[in-house]
Specification:
CATH class of the largest domain: Alpha Beta
Helix content: 25-40%
Radius of gyration: 24 Å
Number of helices: 12
CATH topology of the largest domain: FAD/NAD(P)-binding domain
Largest sheet: 7 strands, mixed
Low-confidence stretches: none
Number of domains: 3
Shape: globular
Number of strands: 22
Strand content: 25-35%
CATH architecture of the largest domain: 3-Layer(bba) Sandwich
């Protein structure tokens, strides 16, 4: 059978593309080689958030005495924790498969390879099948980077996949190599479960894409929680001894080294695009040396007409929600619609505790672009709803154009920052002014008031803090 659209990969971008194309009346097929829902649903976004939620519940139980809740004896069943996480993944992965089937998308479970401009094969345990199509959407995603000096064995040294399986005997001392989003989320997971956690990051700041002012606040909180941060440092290697893993840590500025002992190492040194090796080069698709497929950033079309690439397999930010948007745009292009990928800004979130979230450039980036800025900051310590939740750490920082009053960026650190930033995304997309937000009545008492209060602070009209 010949299909109008063939999608390779069923991650957030792939299954969105397949379902949207089917909704538009196209005959669609999709191939998945490992698990429905891709990395994000199975070994990324979803299982990590499940473990982070477990950690938050543990923290709440341990610190409930201030509210009069005293838990004398608390037992953490790590086997049950893994079961809880896996149950969520299984339910959602099955849900993706059901949605594809319900929308009439033909599913191939196997490894796809492009054999021509309009053909591909899918190799499964039952043999090889040939698929013919008019349009192709490549959503093969990314793969984990590994350090040669720290080979992953799934026990002593784990990556962002194997690290999701929490051993029944919790490692007492954990090292996270990499202070990016993945590294800091795993640091939070193990810290909340009870491990002593150290993070080694070669850059001057953790979470390099976030605003420096927000990161300084976050670092204070992480250190207060007991997470040790070594910045501008690297790892030279390790030696396994009877008392643990002896890791040599180097200060990249002074070149001095020290040896620290750990029971588990989490390698979180980033990901890479996997556009090579599936036959795309043979049909003329341009791919970078690093494996990223080259596309028109607005139409998502590759150098070969009718072939699209989306999500983590292309250059740019590698985020599930960005891939989802890519998927709908690519599907609509395949259906002949004039859709373009023209989002004003893509939000970023780090699901540590408290969370970090932002949309738009950092203050430093905007200043470098020549903007004259006005900035409003509102601390959670001054918000009633935050205090009722027992959370007073953090702030929301709103950055606007001094001349036009347009909101240019919002950066947040605090509980549920990932939810709060949604309003900021809408503000940027609709070209809202600070006044638009300040004049909008927000429900009280809620965390959503942080946006209102930050807007008022930007105009120096805040009621609940002193305007300086």
């Amino acid at each position: 059978m010949r299909y109008d659209v063939f999608v390779i990969g069923s991650g957030p971008g792939g299954y969105h593309a397949a379902i949207r194309a089917a909704q538009l009346g196209l005959k669609v097929a999709i191939a998945e080689k490992e698990f429905w829902g891709g990395v994000c649903l199975n070994v990324g976004c979803i299982p990590t958030k499940a473990l982070l939620h477990v950690g938050q519940e543990i923290y709440n139980a341990q610190h409930g005495s201030v509210m009069g809740i005293n838990i004398i004896d608390m037992n953490i069943d790590l086997k049950a924790v893994n079961k809880y996480k896996d149950g969520i993944v299984k339910k959602l992965s099955g849900g993706v498969a059901s949605l594809l089937k319900g929308n009439g998308v033909t599913q191939f479970f196997g490894e796809a390879r492009v054999t021509g401009r309009n053909s591909a094969t899918v190799q499964s345990k039952d043999g090889e099948q040939t698929v013919e199509f008019d349009k192709l959407i490549v959503a093969t995603g990314g793969a984990i980077n590994h350090l040669k000096t720290f080979p992953v064995d799934g026990m002593d040294i784990v990556d962002s996949t194997s690290g999701l399986i929490i051993p029944e005997v919790l490692p007492a001392r954990v090292l996270c190599i990499g202070g990016g989003v993945i590294g800091m989320e795993f640091a939070t997971i193990y810290n909340r479960l009870g491990s002593a956690v150290t993070v080694v990051e070669p850059m001057a700041n953790i979470i390099g894409a976030a605003d420096e002012e927000i990161i300084k606040e976050a670092e204070k909180s992480y250190k207060k929680q007991g997470i040790k941060l070594f910045k501008r440092t690297g790892v030279q290697g390790y030696e396994k001894k009877a008392d643990g893993l002896h890791v040599t840590i180097e200060d990249l500025e002074t070149k001095q080294t020290q040896v620290e002992i750990f029971d588990r190492i989490v390698s979180a040194v980033g990901r890479r695009a996997v556009g090579q090796g599936i036959g795309l080069e043979e049909i003329g698709v341009k791919i970078s040396d690093r494996g990223a497929i080259e596309i028109d950033p607005r139409t998502l079309e590759t150098s070969v007409p009718g072939v699209y690439a989306i999500g983590d397999v292309v250059q740019g930010v590698w985020l599930a929600h960005k891939a989802m948007k890519d998927g709908t745009v690519a599907a609509e292009r395949c259906a002949g619609k004039p859709s373009v990928n023209d989002a004003v800004a893509i939000p970023g979130v780090v699901y540590t505790s408290p969370e970090i979230a932002w949309v738009g450039p950092t203050q430093k980036e905007l200043e470098a672009q020549g903007f004259k800025l006005k900035i409003g900051r509102f601390p959670l310590a001054a918000l009633g709803r935050a205090l009722t939740l027992g959370s007073s750490e953090g702030l929301v920082k709103m950055i606007a154009d001094e001349e036009t009053d347009l909101v240019l960026a919002v950066h947040a650190f605090g509980p549920n920052a990932s939810d709060i930033i949604g309003e900021a995304c809408l503000a940027l997309e609709m070209a809202a002014t600070v006044d638009d937000i300040a004049l909008t009545v927000h429900p009280h008492p809620t965390l959503s008031e942080l946006m209102l209060e930050a807007a008022e602070a930007t105009h120096k009209h805040s009621i609940h803090i002193m305007n300086r």
